[in-house]
Specification:
By secondary structure, this protein is α/β, with parallel strands linked by helices. Helix content is about 40%, strand content about 10%. It has a single domain (about 15-300), classed as Rossmann fold (3-Layer(aba) Sandwich), CATH 3.40.50. It has eleven helices and eight strands. It is globular.
């Protein structure tokens, strides 16, 4: 199916994208719900009547985020602890979700970190590849069978950095611990390319059940805390550029579009920005690149994540 284009754009908000939709009876999982576009995504979906399960690094953070909107919207929210920096926490979140015995209409893999000053090694991998990609792969693959057959959606939040910041080879598979040197934005770009390639390689794996998989670029949002680790001069430039950047409500629009809008019924394996198809890094569509990403990532998770 070819999605419609032109209805929404860069200035569309999450509420505008979801306007007129009745999402009552649907359940969505949103990672990173405590702030920024994750919180806005949870709010916008719940405003249309959905049940939204929101994850954060701790249960207290998830509860606080859910409490901010719980009493003001027709939908409902359920907080869940899921520390993306800890495979054991992600695995425990999967166990708790499966115990709910509910079908998910979409998993929105939103949580991310950006350009921390040091690589912060764990499991032999620097933090951005670990948090942004590996933990979402662990979560999504272990919950894939809970996505509603015939209509479920996997939405992975990538970035334009997958095209502009990733190294020439795409991902430095032989240097995931950054021992040859660490450049934060480059490592962010390769983690977002991993998100993009993962979304694309999951599309054929989910197709038999009628479940779709797409990636999105939310846009540059100066008011989100994603940029908190950037050096002060870079953050100052972002602040000065705020009039030309998206608001949080606009930044959440494309992932809400990919998760719930009927325009994308049956559309899979795509990359979207401003609620429209966008150009992706060619590496993400390369079967050999996808296969290597899967093999390397699956091997790391097999060695370091608790058994399902």
């Amino acid at each position: 199916m070819t999605p419609r284009s032109g209805r929404f754009g860069a200035r569309s908000t999450a509420d505008e994208v979801l306007a007129g939709l009745d999402l009552s009876g649907r359940t969505y999982l949103v990672t990173g719900c405590a702030a920024g576009i994750g919180h806005e995504t949870m709010r916008a979906l719940a405003a249309r009547g959905a049940h939204v399960i929101g994850t954060a690094r701790s249960l207290a953070r998830a509860e606080g985020a859910c409490a901010q909107i719980r009493d003001h919207l027709p939908g409902r929210t359920t907080p869940l602890a899921c520390d993306q920096d800890d495979f054991a926490s992600v695995a425990e979140a999967v166990v708790r979700l499966r115990a709910l015995a509910i079908e998910l209409d979409a998993i929105i893999a939103n949580a991310a970190i950006m350009a921390p000053p040091t690589p912060d090694l764990r499991y032999g991998v620097e933090s951005q590849f670990r948090v942004n990609h590996l933990s979402h792969m662990l979560l999504a693959t272990r919950l894939a069978d809970r996505l509603r057959a015939g209509s479920g959606r996997l939405v992975t939040v990538s970035s334009s950095a997958a095209q502009s910041k990733a190294p020439r080879e795409g991902i430095a598979f032989d240097d995931l611990d950054a021992r040859r040197g660490y450049r934060g934005l480059e490592r962010y770009g390769q983690s977002k390319l991993a998100n993009l390639a993962f979304a694309k390689l999951m599309a054929p794996r989910l197709r038999e059940r009628g479940v779709t998989s797409n990636a999105v670029h939310p846009g540059v949002i100066a008011s989100t805390d994603l940029f908190r680790a950037l050096p002060r001069p870079a953050r100052a430039l972002l602040w000065l550029g705020r009039p030309f950047m998206k608001s949080i409500a606009q930044g959440a629009a494309t992932q809400c579009y990919a998760a719930a809008h009927p325009d994308l019924d049956g559309a899979t394996g795509g990359f979207y920005a401003d609620c429209r198809p966008a150009r992706a890094n060619p590496h993400a569509d390369d079967p050999e690149f996808q296969a290597r990403l899967w093999t390397v990532s699956d091997g790391l998770l097999a060695r370091h994540a608790p058994a399902s």
